[in-house]
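Exercise 7b. Backbone tokens:
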């Protein structure tokens, strides 16, 4: 929220600098993100033009006599929008103003000093100022700034304009709707600055004539209180300059007197208002009710909106004239021809306003406030300020009409002094606590136990702990002493953290970059996935009240987020990209557990609650521009598999093996599981071509995911084993087997063959072609043989190899390739 400090000073009696205001608000929980100074050149006064004649030596210049109070000055000007009797800002000799147009396009403004001068033979003592030359915010007419007729001659311009200082950019907490107002923030600033808060005093602003328009509430679930007042004799002209400047500094464009008054009241008091052209209200009344099915209204932005049944509306005798709490209707809006207005000051129920605002995609400052359930007292405060401004503008008020609830007694909350000190870790006295509460207009009585009367605008203070928080804010968090605390021993299992840290370091060491995606996903993810024609996960955990379509469900896998990130980074990856992510994934719990879902195990980070199973996961993505070495095998897939084995292997107490496992999102025949003993520790594969194309990724794209629950959380302690004393011998064999026999099955069979002196085996090549015949393939393997007590001989090596070949022939019908 943009907050002009000059506006705050109406209610805070202090000479503190804007930076002090910012510090005070921040310390009290209203963070100030920025302080934007407003230049206020000195020696600028109000002058009245008494004479205006043509310059004797220049056709485009005028010579004027200007009354500036203490003296009359001769000023030469080139302005064309001034006339005798106008009141304008005059820069006296010695003033430093800004060069016209010098601050355009964000450039630093240039200054110029005003000195007595002679222009084409005529003396000039001062200068009439334009808005640019005073660096005023907002939109203004070209030429010299024309003041109101009642501007006092000779007075300092900035005092008359009620403007200056700086503008604060304030973050208002969501539970503090009173902070969405100048008065509310001024109250907090005064408390923080230990200054006097001057509460606004407003007359009732009521006339004796009955209002020709009545108000009614048809649905109490939409509106709690509704005030109305008729004003006649209104001229919807340009707003006073001081009001337009304040609104511009607050980020609101000045439009017309009536629109500006409603915006001004909303910003100062926090109460949204709406003005109707009284002549356009049909049936002599307005009613707060729910919309009927199929009703439509054209809002002030010119858009026709179809309303769902039950949406909050304000209707006259013939139909809706606005969407309650959100935006008024164009048909009943005020114009330059409006002479009689009807003021609406409502208190709407927050939930229907919020639902309608999101459903219609129509957010407004009024809706932002109404949806927070404002206090019942606020409509009267807003009405009184609006009435004062309208009466000052020449309008005649009627009596006030109202419907709905009336404010009740103020809330009382008890707070124990001992409990407050125990909770805050302090030793504040009762007097300190009472003073802290009094600074924000909380009345308190008692000694050991305070009975606190909560003011109407603090709907967030409902119990003892809320009062204690106000005590802490009032005295200051810095006043609470720092006390070293010795925590009791905790039995927190850090295994999950250790495991994730270890794996993250290992993947980073292999050149992977870690990314972090949002847990909530939605339309953006599913739309990209469904372009491939492949099915998305079916057991997703859907949110019952999502913030948007892009945050509709909890992610069922890390893969979709990885693919979106990869699509962004691949164009700048220079031919190779490696990404990984560690995060939680979620599935809705079904009658039958899916094979990829871990069982409930808090030790492994797996939880099942409220129909959702949650567990930690690690997934990665790898993409290549080129296939690597020439081979009939997918060398890049083997590279990814090798990296997984290098990372997972040291964390496994069992031998690793690979099994073929088809998955919808992987390339057929190019995916599998990595097993440690009988447990699956990872799944990996080449991305399905359709999926790669849907995300604009290269054909050589690969993905994997680790089953963290099946991987040790700490690296096992290394077991000492003496180095071999005798050399090994290697035997390479190539066997021809049916194409459906996997290399992993062959290597497992070698290990189980019972061959003497066997140490290890790995497959390194596969061939398919005419030399092995149709339906067959050749798999080449390296077998390592070693004796522990002597050097192995050729005869022993050959015998061992023959045992292996015989075992493969028996199990798979394998034959040695010639």
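Sequence design result:
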């Amino acid at each position: 929220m943009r907050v002009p400090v000059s506006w705050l000073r109406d209610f805070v009696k202090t000479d503190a600098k804007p930076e002090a205001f910012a510090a005070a608000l921040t310390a009290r929980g209203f963070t100030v993100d920025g302080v934007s100074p407003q230049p206020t050149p000195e020696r600028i006064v109000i002058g009245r033009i008494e004479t205006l004649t043509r310059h004797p030596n220049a056709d485009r210049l005028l010579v004027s006599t200007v009354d500036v109070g203490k003296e009359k000055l001769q000023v030469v000007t080139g302005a064309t929008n001034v006339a005798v009797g106008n009141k304008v800002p005059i820069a006296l000799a010695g003033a430093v103003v800004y060069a016209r147009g010098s601050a355009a396009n964000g450039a630093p403004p240039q200054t110029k000093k005003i000195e007595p001068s002679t222009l084409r033979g005529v003396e000039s003592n001062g200068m009439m100022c334009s808005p640019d030359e005073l660096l005023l915010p907002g939109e203004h007419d070209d030429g010299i700034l024309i003041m109101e007729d009642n501007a006092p001659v000779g007075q300092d311009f900035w005092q008359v304009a009620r403007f200056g200082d700086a503008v604060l950019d304030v973050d208002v907490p969501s539970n503090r709707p009173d902070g969405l107002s100048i008065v509310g923030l001024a109250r907090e600033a005064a408390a923080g600055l230990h200054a006097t808060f001057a509460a606004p005093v407003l007359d009732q602003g009521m006339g004796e004539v009955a209002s020709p328009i009545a108000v009614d509430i048809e649905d109490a679930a939409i509106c709690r209180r509704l005030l109305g007042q008729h004003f006649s004799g209104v001229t919807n002209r340009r707003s006073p300059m001081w009001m337009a400047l304040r609104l511009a500094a607050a980020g609101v464009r000045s439009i017309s007197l009536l629109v500006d008054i409603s915006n001004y009241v909303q910003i100062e008091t926090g109460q949204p208002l709406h003005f109707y052209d009284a002549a356009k209200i049909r049936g002599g009344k307005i009613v707060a009710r729910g919309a009927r099915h199929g009703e439509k209204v054209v809002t002030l932005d010119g858009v026709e909106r179809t309303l769902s049944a039950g949406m909050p509306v304000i209707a006259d005798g013939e139909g809706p004239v606005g969407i309650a709490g959100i935006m008024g209707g164009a048909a009943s809006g005020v114009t330059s021809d409006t002479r009689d207005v009807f003021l609406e000051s409502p208190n709407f129920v927050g939930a229907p306003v919020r639902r309608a605002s999101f459903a219609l995609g129509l957010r407004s400052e009024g809706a932002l406030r109404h949806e927070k359930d404002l206090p019942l007292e606020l409509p009267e405060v807003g009405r009184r300020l609006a009435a004062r401004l309208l009466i000052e503008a020449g309008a005649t008020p009627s009596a006030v009409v109202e419907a709905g609830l009336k404010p009740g007694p103020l809330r009382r909350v008890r707070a124990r002094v001992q409990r407050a000190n125990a909770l805050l870790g302090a030793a504040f006295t009762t007097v300190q606590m009472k003073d802290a509460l009094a600074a924000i207009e909380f009345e308190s009585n008692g000694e050991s136990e305070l009975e606190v009367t909560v003011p109407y605008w603090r709907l967030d203070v409902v119990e003892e702990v809320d009062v204690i928080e106000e005590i802490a804010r009032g005295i200051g968090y810095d006043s609470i002493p720092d006390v070293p605390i010795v925590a009791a021993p905790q039995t927190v299992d850090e295994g999950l953290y250790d495991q994730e840290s270890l794996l993250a370091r290992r993947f980073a060491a292999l050149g992977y970059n870690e990314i972090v995606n949002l847990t909530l996903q939605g339309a953006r993810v599913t739309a990209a996935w469904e372009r491939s024609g492949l099915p998305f996960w079916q057991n997703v955990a859907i949110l019952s009240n999502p913030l948007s379509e892009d945050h509709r469900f909890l992610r069922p896998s890390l893969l979709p987020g990885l693919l979106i990130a990869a699509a962004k980074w691949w164009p700048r990856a220079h031919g190779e990209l490696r990404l990984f992510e560690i995060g939680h994934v979620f599935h809705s719990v079904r009658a039958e557990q899916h094979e990829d879902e871990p069982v409930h195990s808090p030790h492994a980070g797996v939880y099942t609650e409220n129909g959702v199973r949650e567990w930690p996961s690690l997934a990665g993505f790898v993409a290549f521009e080129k296939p690597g070495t020439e081979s009939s095998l997918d060398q890049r897939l083997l590279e990814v598999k090798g990296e997984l084995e290098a990372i997972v292997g040291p964390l496994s107490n069992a031998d690793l093996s690979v099994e073929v496992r088809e998955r919808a999102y992987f390339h057929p025949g190019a995916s599998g599981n990595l097993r440690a003993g009988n447990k699956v520790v990872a799944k990996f594969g080449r991305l399905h071509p359709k999926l790669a194309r849907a995300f604009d990724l290269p054909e050589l794209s690969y993905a994997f995911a680790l089953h963290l629950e099946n991987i040790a959380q700490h690296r096992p302690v290394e077991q000492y084993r003496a180095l071999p004393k005798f050399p090994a011998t290697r035997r390479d064999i190539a066997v021809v087997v049916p194409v459906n026999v996997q290399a992993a099955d062959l290597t497992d069979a070698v290990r189980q063959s019972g061959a003497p002196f066997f140490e290890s085996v790995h497959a390194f090549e596969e061939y398919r072609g005419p030399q092995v015949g149709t339906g067959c393939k050749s798999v080449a393997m390296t077998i390592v043989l070693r004796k522990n007590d002597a050097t192995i001989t050729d005869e022993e090596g050959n015998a061992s190899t023959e045992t292996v070949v015989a075992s493969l022939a028996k199990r798979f019908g394998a034959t040695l390739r010639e």
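Instructor comment: The mean pLDDT is 91. The first helix runs from residue 5 to 8.
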